[in-house]
Amino acid sequence: MLVYIAGSGAMGCRFGYQISQTNHEVILLDNWAEHIAAIKDKGLTITGDVEDNVSLPIMKPTEATREADLIILFTKAMQLPQMLQDIKGIIGQETKVLCLLNGLGHEDVIRHYIPVHNILMGVTVWTAGLKGPGHAHLQGVGALNLQSLDPANQEAGHQVAELLNQAKLNATYDDNVLPHIWRKACVNGSMNSLCALLDCTIGELFTSQDGLKIVNSIIHEFVTVGKAEGVELNEEEITTYVMDTSVKAAHHYPSMHQDLVQNHRKTEIDFLNGAVNTKGQKLGIETPYCRLITEMVHTKEKILNINGSLSTVVGDL
Questions:
Q1: CA distance 244 to 240
Q2: Is the pLDDT of residue 113 over 90?
Q3: 273 and 218 Cβ atoms separated by less than 8 Å
Q4: Higher per-residue confidence, 265 vs 119
Q5: 98 within 8 A of 106, measured Cβ to Cβ
Q6: Nearest one of 145, 144, 24, 148 to 96, comparing CA atoms
């Protein structure tokens, strides 16, 4: 199969590298000029659990011409519509599109560009980082769950899961992936946004009793809105998952901190806390914590005069 990675930051590089070690062909797509130049010039450098350097084709999305068998979406959430517009020339009638973006509501965007029977939605707990242009650092073990959006085309989902497992990406076909997507969004909506606003690590946030109160309130709002949308969510289970994650990633600055504080890039807040607030308003559910956090992050973006960026450096929590 010809597999395109649409958004070749840290996570895109991980998936692209691991799939390239199988008998499938991989092409990386990105808009970060320095990243493209580095990989074209010296190949993709891999460090961490694996030390390697591989020659992988990489180009801007608008430069791709060969029809894809599979496209894996790893672009930033706010860049998704533009990415789908830019790659429309490589989307054929049988092209499968797997969305592994953080956040909520991406399927509604993708439906405007891709027939529903070709859309796969998923969530992954793999992590990765970029040390610089053309240099991906891969450490730790993860997994992913995916589901065909069209119940009548589960075969496509199983085929993609098999491909990903050939790449040792621990994929599971899931008949009900939405709870997993919401659970990860809840992790990001509590850890990411608060660490960005408070300029702290995950461990520092979770050692504060006041911080824990805010985290629990955010979890409650996510679960309440998710349940109202018909998603099977267990607040106690999600709280335990968030707490366990906080221990494993205690010394980590999550991706929104890296975007907002460290690199002054636009965040994905509208697809996390902002999405919950918007959905809550439509359902008549108050979400004061998510609303305030969204407004505060947008305020910080305006203070920093952030208009957005095409760079896809960060790809973890």
A1: 6
A2: yes
A3: yes
A4: 119
A5: no
A6: 148
Among residues 40, 42, 168, 184, the one annotated as catalytic is 184
Find where tokens 């050692």 sit: 207
Instruction: Kindly indicate the confidence band of residue 312, based on its pLDDT and cuts at 50, 70 and 90.
Output: very low
H/E stretch holding 71 reads strand 70-73
Counting every residue, how long is the chain? 317
pTM: 0.89
Token pair in block for residue 200: 């702290």
314 vs 261: CA distance, rounded Å: 13
Q: Which residues, 6+ apart, have CB-to-CB distance to 274 below 8 Å?
A: 290, 294
**Cα(301)–Cα(317) distance, integer angstroms:** 20
Assess contact for 37 and 132: CB atoms under 8 A.
no
CA atoms of 115 and 138, how far apart (whole Å): 33
184 catalytic, yes or no? yes
Q: What residue type is 102 in one-letter code?
A: N
Note the pLDDT of residue 61.
Answer: 98
- Contact indicator for 15, 27 with CB cutoff of 8 Å: no
Listed in sequence order, the DSSP H helices in the chain are: 10-20, 33-42, 80-86, 106-110, 154-166, 178-187, 193-198, 202-206, 209-228, 235-248, 255-257, 273-283, 288-303
